[in-house]
Write a structure and sequence with these properties.
heterodimer; A: 267 residues; TIM Barrel; B: 204 residues; alpha/beta; Rossmann fold; eight-stranded mixed β-sheet; three-stranded mixed β-sheet
């Protein structure tokens, strides 16, 4: 049986993982490759890496840091931030990523989703969305609007319509990142996560707001998500206590959520 | 020396990083002469079957691979799409696959989310050198919309389940392959790569 996944998220600035709150006030945490190594040893299921300033600074992604992480983790590794075209995607894959996350650039040029899926397969293209609850109005029936550029720019796109279009264009997974909940450790926005999971047939990933095991469990059950992005729980300096991957998985198992069990191999 | 096929649509770097971590000698195979110089071959893969076969054809690698694997009997490990294309044909596209093993590649039914993405349990059908040291029923990382259906049931080494039971691993003589990403399945997957490096190409 396929298990639910825990994905550690790295917001990377100049090779270092940082932790933001509602997309602002980033605090330095650790070198990306060191944290990656530590989480791999702790048996994280997957790692996603966002070069968070690449898009806003209109520069290409930091491939040296991508490589330094890929050399140390032997679980799936997704990279996003500043991906503009097929050449960028190719460079990231050749640096050791399995999947490419597109976000702001996909809103500006949706065809990048189709082109990427055609060249590398739909499983390779993750559509990440930054969504904010703004209230339903004409053109925004779900009441959730898509934002881009680190939650700074409103697009006028309805979240549900956008993810449907993204999946139709070839996105193999959809990340629902709630701007309202990001870094709050108060729980995922379960409403929009569930609405997206019901709207598309590809796997959906809950993101933004998980602060404890109950939040993660809720995202994976009530939220309908196949995977949960976590970061604050693991390493936010703002939390009084961080949890390890094993502790989290034990907690999820106790709550009836099926996750990959801890493995010990004999030599 | 392990040769890792490197072609445009492939993910050779991930496999090279894994082999380096394990201290195993490996080199990239990009052209026919590279394939002649190695004594075992890994065909990693991501993406679409047709694109993968097209990439290999364009690089002039199809004939030399067949000569080395079917002719010389060098141990071969296909991964993900690298597993699917060793069969005769895929429902994913009109292009023929390599046809080294009888069987086809079918799409998962839409009763669950497709593609399958994540860690799934693998149950081995028999003891085999490639899975030496594995715990019972380990979890491996899969990313696939399609799965192989080998014609010979004895070729199936491991099975998994996603909407339907499917073949997660094949081993037939010197040809072995994993539908899961051995290079991305943590220590369980790395164990397969270590075992492959010491494998003679037989059943024991």
């Amino acid at each position: 049986m396929l298990t639910k996944r825990l994905i550690a998220c790295f917001d990377v600035v100049e090779g270092r993982v940082t932790k933001a709150q509602r997309f602002q006030d980033n605090i330095d945490v650790a070198a990306a490759f060191e944290l990656a190594q530590q989480l791999y040893a702790d048996q994280i299921d997957e790692i996603v890496f966002y070069d968070i300033l690449a898009s806003a600074q209109r520069r290409r992604i930091d491939l040296d840091t991508v490589r330094s992480v890929a050399e140390h983790v032997f679980v799936p590794f997704t990279v996003g931030g500043g991906i503009r075209d097929l050449d960028d995607m190719f460079a990231v894959l050749k640096a050791g990523a399995e999947k490419i996350s597109v976000d702001s650039m996909a809103v500006r040029n949706p065809d990048i989703i189709r082109a990427g899926a055609e060249a590398f397969g739909t499983q390779c293209i993750v559509l990440s969305t930054q969504v904010k609850q703004v209230g339903a109005r004409a053109g925004l029936p779900s009441g959730y609007e898509v934002f881009i550029d680190g939650a700074r720019t409103a697009t006028g796109l309805d979240a549900i319509e956008w993810v449907r279009r993204g999946a139709d264009l070839g996105a193999g997974e959809i990340v629902v990142n709630s701007i309202d909940c990001d870094g709050t450790a108060a729980g995922y926005d379960l409403g929009i996560t569930r609405a997206v999971a019901d709207a598309v047939t590809v796997p959906v990933i809950a993101s933004g707001g998980a602060g404890d095991v109950d939040h993660v469990a809720a995202g994976l059950t009530d939220g309908g998500a196949s995977a949960a992005i976590i970061s604050s729980i693991l390493y936010s300096p703002r939390l009084a206590r961080n949890l390890g991957v094993r502790e989290l998985k034990d907690g999820l198992t106790e709550r009836g959520v099926h996750v990959r069990p801890w493995v010990v191999l004999d030599d | 020396m392990i040769g890792v096929l490197d072609y445009r649509a492939g993910n050779a770097p991930s496999v090279m990083y894994a082999l380096a971590r394990l201290g195993l000698d490996a080199t990239l195979v990009r052209a026919a002469e590279d394939a002649a110089a190695v004594d075992r071959i890994v065909l990693p893969g991501v993406g679409a079957a047709a694109a993968t076969v097209a990439s290999l054809t364009e690089a002039g690698l199809v004939d030399v691979l067949r000569d080395r694997v079917l002719g010389d009997g060098v141990p071969f490990l296909g991964i993900c799409i690298g597993m699917q294309i060793v069969f005769e044909r895929s429902a994913e596209g009109p292009a023929d696959c390599l046809g080294w093993l009888p069987g086809s590649v079918e799409r998962f039914p839409d009763t669950d989310r497709v593609p399958q993405i994540g860690w799934n349990e693998v149950v081995t059908r028999r003891r085999h050198p490639l899975t030496a040291g594995w715990p019972a029923r380990p979890y491996c990382y899969f990313v696939n919309s399609y799965h192989a259906v080998p014609h010979d049931a004895e070729a199936v080494l491991g099975v998994s389940e996603y909407s339907v039971p499917f073949c997660a691993m094949v081993a037939w003589g010197n040809i072995a392959a994993t539908q899961f990403h051995a290079e991305k399945s943590g220590e369980i997957g790395l164990r397969v790569l270590v075992n492959f490096a010491g494998w003679s190409g037989g059943e024991c």
